[in-house]
């Protein structure tokens, strides 16, 4: 904490930090500032609790600093937050200190509510990504606050209008006949503000000759759904007779059954007296009543539309915040995991060449490679959910794709499940990534198999659909619908709503990752399509993958793969990567190919090597580096060496806005063969050389 002082509240969003151990505070402040947020530090936990206010965008704590502390002040502030507020917290834990394995961390999750745990050691970009996500979520909460304040102001004006018009609001629950009436409404029937006024009291107050009229109006409204409107005489407790004017609207549940009446009442005694004494003004008076009735109805239709809009806005905000936060975190973790997998796969591949004669060592390396590739497949699922996997989108004949998977599908579901396919031959091609669609179909088939443990039937079909409306989850156009239907156990409505949430699974622990449907949903959205699910318990489940159709014909597969035209040439290569392990693995693969490699660990270091006159045949650079990204480095190098072939390595499918560069892309994790091919493509592109096919 030395050298860092807390600053007073400035009225602007800020990050509140309590990290008293070692250099944690300095590091946290530095990273928060790099994320574009002002940092405020607290010297102790009571001060941290005292500084909590609506201007705090998010809080940063270390788990060990609050593990055994009294969190009552913090918990009290969190519990007292207004409805629009859900302050996010970032808790830095030690290795292995997540809530799954640490009861103390789990306790923090219960106290802080909206909390993200980040295990140390962590990469700076992971912290910055989480901090920015939390900051954006808090900004949306501020927008929700402004919207709610506007809605509250509208409600206040409506209440003022009702009071000004001497209109008494009331509500009648039809199941229990429980009546709720405002003070103004009670006054219409001669009751004081603090007197009890039940539905039985209301019925007794109606003039005996008018009770049949009131009951008939009520029955008609319940039967037909028409608005309730009646005028009747009422007897006050002092015996005097008055007139009441009552209007209401019927509300039903989702099954169409009558649920409650909501309306207004007013004292019509003066009007009725005037009608009796001044019959000549009857028409004018009736017109005024109709106008006032219309105004009341319009105002009433407006306690109801505003409330519905507010509830819808709150629900959409909560869902959007949850999915965006999970997507950002998942994509960042998958990106870092891709880098680690590249190191493992690259080193195992090179190691395999050195133990080619050792059968046991080769078998062990093959097993490790299989495990690493399974990790790469899991990473692709995570990137698919976060919509960041690299897709190879082409026109694909889905009927041919499904037919080609027939044997694989039958082996996957087993002999107890029969498969029926309905594949019309004349459908348009779909614009998709064939490999990802095959993986999605296999996931859906396996899910269907698991839902039918005693066997059953699985139906796979294709059809063409036209979307004409605007504003839904699909744009206008033609879609090919891949449908998978089973007659298994099915899902109830609550389970169906959470089915595509990441890591949600109905399978027992260890039997599923909970990423299958999340991956398919992410893939569908990234392909400009949609995943739609329908299910009923005991009936089965239908999953529909809506994919955009295209008039383009499927491409013919290449007869041979492309091999490097200069595989025997010895190149001098500049390799730029801030991750030491990745750089080491890549250097080994390049040197094994026979090239000379110079390593740089930052964009500025690489730029200095080129400016100093160093000659290189090609440069390979990582995209995500602190200080200077690979795209920025490439642009700077182009001004010095315009013709230098450059390959951009990245684990993301789409680069951030403003980072578009016309460079060959090397997707992580990559192996030696892919690395060699991309070097060749870059050289061929710069030198206008044709690609030579493999022998």
Average pLDDT over all residues: 80
Low-pLDDT sequence parts: 1-9, 509-514, 558-568, 689-695
State the shape. elongated
CATH class of the largest domain: Alpha Beta
CATH topology of the largest domain: Heat Shock Protein 90
Count the E strands: 22
Number of helices: 22
Helix content: 40-55%
Beta-strand content bin? 15-25%
Overall number of structural domains:
5
Evaluate the radius of gyration.
34 Å
CATH A-level architecture of the largest domain: 2-Layer Sandwich
InterPro entries: CheY-like_superfamily, HATPase_C_sf, HATPase_dom, His_kinase_dom, HisK_dim/P_dom, HisK_dim/P_sf, PAS, PAS-assoc_C
Modified residues (4-aspartylphosphate): 622
GO molecular function: phosphorelay sensor kinase activity
Keywords: Phosphoprotein
Outline of the structure:
This protein has 695 residues and is α/β, with parallel strands linked by helices.
Description:
Residues 228-280 form the PAC domain. It is built from 22 helices and 22 strands. Helices cover 45% and strands 20% of the residues. The chain starts with 13 loop residues before the first strand and ends in an 8-residue tail after the last helix. With 695 residues, it is of the alpha/beta class. 31% of the residues are buried. A five-stranded parallel sheet has the order 2-1-3-4-5, with helices on both faces. A five-stranded antiparallel sheet has the order 7-6-10-9-8, with helices on both faces. It has five domains: 14-142, Response regulator (Rossmann fold, 3-Layer(aba) Sandwich); 165-303, Beta-Lactamase (2-Layer Sandwich); 309-385; 394-548, Heat Shock Protein 90 (2-Layer Sandwich), CATH 3.30.565.10; 572-687, Response regulator (Rossmann fold).
């Amino acid at each position: 904490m030395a050298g860092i002082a807390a600053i007073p509240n400035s009225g602007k969003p800020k990050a509140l930090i309590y990290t008293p151990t070692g250099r944690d505070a300095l590091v946290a402040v530095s990273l928060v500032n790099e994320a574009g947020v002002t940092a405020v530090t607290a010297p102790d936990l009571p001060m941290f609790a005292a500084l909590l206010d609506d201007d705090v965008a998010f809080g940063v704590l270390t788990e060990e600093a609050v593990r055994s502390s009294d969190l009552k002040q913090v918990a009290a502030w969190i519990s007292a937050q207004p409805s629009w507020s859900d302050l996010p917290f970032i808790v830095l834990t030690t290795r292995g200190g997540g809530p799954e394995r640490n009861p103390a961390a789990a306790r923090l999750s219960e106290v802080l509510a909206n909390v993200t745990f980040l295990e140390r050691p962590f990469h700076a970009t992971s912290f910055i990504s989480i901090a920015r996500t939390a900051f954006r979520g808090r900004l949306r909460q501020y927008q929700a606050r402004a919207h709610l304040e506007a809605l509250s102001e509208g409600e206040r004006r409506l209440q003022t209008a009702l009071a000004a018009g001497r209109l008494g609001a009331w509500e009648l629950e039809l199941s229990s006949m429980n009546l709720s009436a405002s003070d103004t409404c009670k006054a219409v029937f001669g009751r004081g503000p603090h007197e009890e006024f039940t539905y039985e009291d209301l019925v007794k107050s109606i003039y005996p000759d008018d009770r049949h009229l009131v009951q008939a109006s009520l029955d008609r409204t319940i039967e037909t759904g028409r608005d309730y409107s009646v005028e009747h005489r009422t007897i006050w407790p002092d015996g005097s007779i008055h007139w009441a004017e009552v209007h209401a609207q019927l509300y039903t549940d989702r099954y169409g059954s009558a649920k409650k009446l909501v309306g207004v009442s007013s004292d019509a005694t003066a009007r009725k007296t005037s009608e009796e004494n001044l019959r000549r003004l009857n028409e004018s008076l009736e017109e005024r009543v109709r106008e006032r009735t219309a105004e009341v109805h319009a105002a009433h239709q407006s306690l109801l539309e505003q409330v519905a809009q507010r509830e819808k806005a709150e629900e959409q905000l909560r869902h959007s915040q949850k999915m965006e936060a999970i997507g950002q975190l998942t994509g960042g973790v998958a990106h870092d995991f891709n880098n680690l997998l590249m190191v493992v796969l690259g080193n195992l591949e090179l190691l395999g060449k050195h133990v080619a004669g050792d059968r046991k060592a080769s078998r062990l390396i093959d097993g490790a490679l299989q495990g690493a590739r399974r990790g790469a497949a899991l990473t692709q699922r995570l990137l698919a959910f976060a919509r960041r996997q690299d897709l190879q989108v082409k026109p694909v004949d889905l009927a041919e794709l499904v037919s080609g998977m027939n044997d694989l599908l039958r082996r996957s579901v087993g002999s107890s499940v029969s498969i029926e396919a309905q594949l019309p031959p004349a459908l348009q091609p779909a614009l998709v990534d064939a490999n990802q669609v095959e993986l999605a179909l296999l996931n859906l088939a396996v899910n269907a198999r698991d839902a039918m443990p005693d066997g059953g039937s699985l139906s796979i079909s294709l059809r063409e659909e036209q979307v004409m409306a605007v504003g839904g989850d699909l744009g206008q156009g033609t879609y090919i619908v891949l449908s998978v239907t089973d007659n298994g156990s099915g899902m109830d409505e609550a389970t169906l709503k959470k089915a595509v949430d990441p890591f949600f699974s109905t399978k027992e622990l260890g039997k599923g990752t909970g990423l299958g449907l999340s991956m398919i949903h992410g893939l569908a959205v990234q392909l400009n399509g949609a995943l739609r699910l329908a299910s009923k318990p005991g009936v089965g489940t239908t999953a529909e993958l809506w994919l955009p159709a295209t008039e383009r014909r499927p491409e013919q597969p290449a007869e041979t793969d492309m091999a490097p035209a200069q595989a025997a040439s010895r190149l001098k290569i500049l390799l730029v990567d801030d991750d030491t392990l990745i750089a080491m693995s890549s250097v080994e693969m390049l040197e094994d190919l026979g090239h000379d490699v110079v390593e740089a660990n930052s964009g500025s270091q690489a730029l200095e090597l080129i400016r100093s006159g160093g000659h290189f045949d090609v440069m390979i650079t990582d995209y995500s580096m602190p200080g200077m990204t690979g795209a920025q480095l490439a642009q700077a190098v182009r001004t010095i060496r315009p013709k230098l072939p450059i390959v951009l390595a990245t684990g993301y499918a789409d680069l951030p806005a403003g980072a578009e560069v016309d460079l060959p892309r090397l997707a992580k994790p990559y192996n030696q063969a892919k690395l060699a091919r991309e070097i060749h493509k870059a050289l061929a592109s710069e030198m206008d050389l044709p690609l030579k096919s493999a022998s």
